[in-house]
């Protein structure tokens, strides 16, 4: 089939996310200027640069109590910092619970039953049980075409990795099985890996 997005796809669900998959999940934790903490997963997320290390995530909807965006973007806009928590397969239910659209004053950490840890380089909480955490300072927020599409970019100022996940100096993916987002309501986990040597 072929379709133009502006004309519709005619399928039961939009296939766009299913085509661009798997995608890593940026489990973004923030602290608002009012001191309230927030945690939410974003599947429009990735690393975008090595030196200095940088990441981005995009919020694509809005909350009634946040104007034209979500709590995460609004908090980062106010404070200039955020943390990216890696989602393991073991944390899948907690991640999913934190995706609920809650009132601004409710704490997703509490709703998901997660212990918080304070970041080292920024004033922000992170998920204590996360396999790895990237502490980030905001570099820019870009408004994309569309009513509530905002891409947030940040420079990584601190990296936390659980010691037991490092094997001979390398991160062992199969020890924590990173969760990935597919399309629709579907997810996957990484349980097998293989290597390819790049051509000279």
UniProtKB/TrEMBL annotation:
Kindly give the InterPro entries that the UniProt entry links to this protein.
Answer: Flavin_Rdtase-like_dom (IPR002563), Split_barrel_FMN-bd (IPR012349)
User: Which SUPFAM superfamilies has this protein been placed in?
Assistant: FMN-binding split barrel (SSF50475)
A GO molecular function term, named singly, is:
FMN binding
Domain named Flavin reductase like: residues: 20-173
A Pfam family found in this protein is Flavin_Reduct
List where this protein forms a coiled coil: none
Name of the featured protein: Flavin reductase like domain protein
Q: Which organism is it from?
A: Roseisalinus antarcticus
Q: What is the lineage of its organism?
A: Bacteria, Pseudomonadati, Pseudomonadota, Alphaproteobacteria, Rhodobacterales
């Amino acid at each position: 089939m072929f379709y133009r997005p502006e004309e519709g796809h005619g399928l039961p669900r939009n296939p766009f996310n299913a085509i661009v998959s798997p995608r890593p999940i940026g489990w973004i934790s923030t602290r608002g200027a009012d001191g309230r903490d927030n945690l939410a997963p974003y599947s429009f997320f990735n690393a975008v640069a090595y030196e200095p290390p940088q990441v981005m995530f995009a919020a694509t909807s809005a909350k009634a109590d946040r104007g034209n965006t979500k709590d995460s973007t609004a908090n980062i806009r106010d404070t200039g910092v955020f943390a990216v928590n890696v989602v393991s397969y073991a944390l899948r239910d907690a991640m999913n619970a934190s995706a609920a659209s809650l009132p601004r004053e409710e704490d997703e950490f509490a709703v998901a039953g997660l212990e918080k840890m304070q970041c080292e380089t920024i004033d922000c909480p992170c998920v204590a049980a996360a396999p790895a955490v990237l502490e980030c300072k905001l570099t820019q927020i870009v408004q994309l075409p569309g009513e509530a599409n905002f891409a947030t970019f940040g420079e990584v100022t601190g990296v936390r990795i659980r010691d037991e996940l490092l094997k001979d100096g390398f991160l062992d993916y199969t020890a924590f099985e990173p969760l990935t987002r597919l399309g629709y309501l579907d997810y996957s986990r990484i349980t097998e890996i293989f290597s390819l040597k790049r051509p000279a």
